[in-house]
Design goal:
With 229 residues, the protein is of the alpha+beta class. The chain has one domain: 3-Layer(aba) Sandwich (NADH Oxidase). The protein is 38% helix and 13% strand. Strands 1-2-4-3 form a 4-stranded antiparallel β-sheet, sandwiched between helices. The relative contact order is 0.20. The model has no long low-confidence stretch (mean pLDDT 96). It binds the ligand Cc1cc2c(cc1C)N(C[C@H](O)[C@H](O)[C@H](O)COP(=O)(O)O)c1[nH]c(=O)[nH]c(=O)c1N2. The ligand Cc1cc2c(cc1C)N(C[C@H](O)[C@H](O)[C@H](O)COP(=O)(O)O)c1[nH]c(=O)[nH]c(=O)c1N2 binds next to strand 3 and helix 7. One of its GO terms (molecular function) is nucleotide binding. Belongs to the BluB family. Homooctamer.
């Protein structure tokens, strides 16, 4: 089949003020959600829009290395929670004193509370061994998959749906639970569900774990500024 070269260009004018503000509002009010999920099922058309948003993410060489495993089965969620719990206990041991106490007091997942989990994976073999743009850095396929997660996260905010990213697992445990092939990477376990409240600041900041850094401290001109290391 001959490639389709019939694509046309779209106008690229700025959004209206309202549209622009809506985009920034989604970005600034998106939160990582752990425990505030409502039990209501998410309608299929909403899930479809979230996945479509994810699937429109940029990807290296237009590789689209992602898959989305939709988990609704309580038994599967329970197994994932057990894997989280094991890893979380190990993580707690890595802090000392007050920090350990604080860590242990944090709620870091909503796996069983959220009506839906979406495991987002990255298949490094999606389009052969040599991928445009990935030749000098193999991690570009993982980065692409993270872009898909962020698209989904922002779209979810606009839908009134909360998302919580859980990464406190041994990857092998999740692969086994979900039957994911060895070569495929687990990028994110996302807990997904409606919410009626969101923190106005990151929960980790509210709970005293870590504060947002001043942007000024992170921006350099032309070269890395060692004095700020
Ligand atoms: C790659 C990655 C992995 C994780 C997270 C995020 C990302 C990007 N975050 C969420 C993280 O704690 C949160 O994004 C920050 O604290 C900032 O808060 P807001 O997302 O702005 O609410 C997260 N949160 C949590 O409670 N358990 C977890 O395992 C993880 N893992």
């Amino acid at each position: 089949m001959r490639p389709d070269h019939s694509g046309s260009l779209l106008g690229a004018s700025a959004f209206s003020i309202e549209e622009r503000d809506a985009v920034y509002r989604a970005i600034s009010t998106r939160r990582d959600v752990r425990s505030e999920f409502l039990p209501d099922a998410i309608p299929d058309d909403v899930v479809e829009r979230l996945l479509t948003a994810a699937h429109h993410a940029p990807s290296v060489g237009f590789m689209q290395p992602w898959n989305f495993i939709l988990v609704r089965d309580d038994k599967v969620k329970e197994a994932a929670w057990q894997a989280f719990d094991r890893a979380n206990r190990e993580a707690g041991e890595m802090f000392n004193g007050e920090r350990r106490q604080l860590y242990r007091s944090l709620k870091l997942e909503g796996i069983r509370a959220a009506p839906l989990s979406i495991c987002v994976t990255c298949d490094p073999d999606r389009c052969g061994d040599i991928v445009l743009g990935r030749t000098h850095n193999r991690r570009m396929d993982s980065y692409s998959t993270v872009c898909a997660v962020q698209n989904l996260w922002l779209a979810a905010r606009a839908e009134g749906v909360g998302v919580g990213w859980v990464s406190i697992f041994h990857e092998a445990d999740i692969k086994e639970i979900l039957g994911v092939p060895e070569r495929v990477e687990i990028v994110a376990w996302l807990c997904v569900g409606y919410v009626d409240k969101l923190y106005d600041q990151p929960e980790l900041a509210v709970k005293g774990w870590r504060q947002r850094l001043p942007l000024k401290q992170l921006v350099f001109s032309d070269r890395w500024e060692n004095s700020r290391d």
